[in-house]
Design a protein that fits this description.
Number of domains: 2
Number of helices: 10
CATH class of the largest domain: Alpha Beta
């Protein structure tokens, strides 16, 4: 038996700006995807999943001819050229990254790729390098900065810029609230809209967003300065969204921002936006508690979630 698990992530700051070379602040969260490999007597390779629901039974020959943008393709590439077993049970559990069948938007695909590739790499005798995981995920999802893969591997909070990773810590005295809007989005659709806007050459709003992102990562030593910088970043992100017409602040996020403003805390989407999950940040725990009460009353989902200090983990037995 080989079990590999990897955490999801939330982008604290730097979404979209990271694609223009700015730094992003990324937190791994304790919503993990687990891949478990175990022996099977017959029947080839069975892929059984909980969460994204993609069960299949494949022969070893089919697996080793699978496309790069499939789970079987990730397994094939991570395993390498060794002597593969004829029969194998592959259980993938991404259910912690869903609520009532809807994705939370916490980087479950990167966590899945990291967990699957690590499990099969260990099975083949050589766990994948970070550069390989970037490649696997880009092929599986169709692109991206790689920050979600980096968070899945390292855990904790990182500064991510041009694939350079620096572990950092959030300031002492910061309190966080994680809120799910109730609606999922397709990151690839939002990124496609961003790419189309960027190709038209209107880059000034993106440059302002990048400057605000740099300010946030420079303020991680002081709680008050960090909250102020993040609040300014959230405002610039909203103006950027209005200019680019991406839809980052969907209805749930706009409502959450209104509620946050009423109690004096900062709220922003985390990542591509649209729906998915956002974060409330303050130095006052009472203000966070008031925000959570109002968010719940408004039909938003306050998530029991924490920053995860652990990146990808492997257990054998």
């Amino acid at each position: 038996m080989i079990e590999a698990s990897a955490p999801g992530k939330l982008v604290v700051s730097g979404e979209y700006a990271v694609l223009a070379g700015a730094p992003a602040l990324v937190a791994a969260v304790d919503r993990r995807v687990t891949c478990t490999l175990s022996a099977r007597d017959a029947g080839g390779w069975r892929f059984a999943s909980t969460g994204f629901e993609d069960d299949s039974e494949l022969s070893r020959a089919v697996v080793f001819d699978a496309a790069a943008d499939t789970v079987a393709g990730i397994a094939r590439r991570a395993f390498g050229t060794g002597d593969a077993p004829e029969n194998l049970h592959v259980a993938i559990d991404s259910s912690p990254c869903y609520v009532d069948g809807t994705k939370l938007g916490v980087g479950s695909s990167a966590a899945m790729v990291t967990a699957v590739a690590t499990a099969f790499g260990v099975l083949g005798g050589n766990a994948p390098r970070l550069a390989e995981l970037y490649e696997f995920h880009a092929d599986y999802q169709g692109g991206g900065s790689g920050l979600d893969v980096a968070a899945a591997v390292t855990g904790g909070v990182i500064r991510f810029q041009d694939r350079a990773i620096t572990p950092v810590g959030l300031p002492r005295g910061i309190h966080l609230s994680f809120v799910f809007t109730g609606a999922g989005t397709r990151t690839t659709d939002l990124l496609s809209t961003f790419d189309g806007w960027r190709q038209r050459g209107a880059t000034a709003p993106l440059e302002r967003l990048a400057a605000a992102a740099r300010e946030v990562v420079d303020c991680t030593a002081n709680a008050d300065a960090f909250v102020d910088a993040l609040g300014e970043y959230a405002d610039v992100l909203e103006r950027f969204d209005q200019a680019a017409r991406i839809g980052i602040l969907g209805p749930g996020h706009r409502h959450a921002r209104e509620l946050a403003a009423q109690v004096g805390i900062v709220y922003k989407p985390c990542g591509a936006g649209g729906g998915d999950t956002g974060i409330g940040v303050a130095t006052d725990p009472a203000a966070i508690a008031a925000f959570e009460r109002q968010a719940s009353a408004a039909g938003l989902v306050v998530l029991p979630m924490e920053i995860s200090g652990d990146g990808v983990k492997v257990r054998t037995g």
